[in-house]
Amino acid sequence: MQSFPPVSAPDATILILGSMPGVASLQAGQYYAHPRNGFWPIMGELAGAGRELPYAERLTRLQAAGVALWDVLQSCVREGSLDTAIDDRYSVANNFETFFRYHPAIKRVFFNGVKAEQCFRRQVLGQQAIPDGLEYVRLPSTSPAHAGMTLARKQEAWRQILPEA
Question: ∠ CA 85-90-96 to the nearest 5 degrees?
Fold first, then answer.
């Protein structure tokens, strides 16, 4: 499996990282395409980038809010869509060294779930030259597989990415 390129503007201040797009996203060629994923409803509330908008407009609104979107992994071996099925032996991280060089205003990195944070800490930190002083925050996964938390509770946790929203 191959990830997507980042969605970002040069002046982004926030980076949201998933682990790797799921099957529905890969088939659609869009981040968070599964209809039950909570990402776009949450972004609708926080940045006016809800699922009711065309995909390109959602991305434009995220960029206007200073949000960059990417995945930790460039490629991996995984059966299905679950993060727990990612075989870490065959996963390759994206090039964050170059990404941060072109996005020097990013100060906060938010992980969409546990696996994204684990992969970043294992395969990026200490392996690539990453700027000092970044703030790292793990948020609850927006995946429908993370059903132990309601969308309302996820939205409340995610509110910290854009506290003025």
Answer: 100
pLDDT band at 125 (very low <50, low <70, confident <90, very high): very high
Residue type, 15: L
Question: What are the DSSP E strand ranges found in the chain?
Answer: 14-18, 67-71, 73-78, 86-93, 108-112, 135-139
Q: Backbone dihedral region of 158: left (phi > 0), alpha (psi from -120 to 50 degrees) or beta? A: alpha
> Could you tell me the fold of the domain covering 14-161?
Uracil-DNA Glycosylase, subunit E (3.40.470)
As annotated, the active-site residues are: 37
Long-range (24+ apart) CB contacts under 8 A made by 87-91 are 88/119, 88/122, 91/20, 91/119, 91/123
- On the question of pLDDT at 86 being above 70, the answer is no
Domain extents in the chain:
14-161
pLDDT for residue 72: 93
Q: How far apart are CA 156 and CA 67, in angstroms?
A: 18
- What letter would DSSP give residue 5? P
